[in-house]
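sanity check this fold:
=====
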Amino acid sequence: MTTTQLPIRRDPEIMSGTPTFVGTRVPAQTLQDYLESSETRDAFPADFPSVSRGQGIAAVDLGNTSLIVEA
C-alpha cells in the first residue's frame, strides 16, 4: 500500500489552523483565488515560490477528486 502525502495541512500552530501548503505559510485558498481570477497560470508560482509546482498540481487534483466523489 502506498501513502500519498497531502499537499495541504491544517495545524492550529500555523496561521491559526488555516489550511496551508505543507512546509509553507501560504493558505490553500490563495491558489483558489488565483485560479478564479484573471491572473496567468504562471503568476501563482512566481508570487509564491515556496509552493512547489507539484504541490499546486496535487491540490488542484485533490479538489477535482473531491468534487467528483461528492457529486
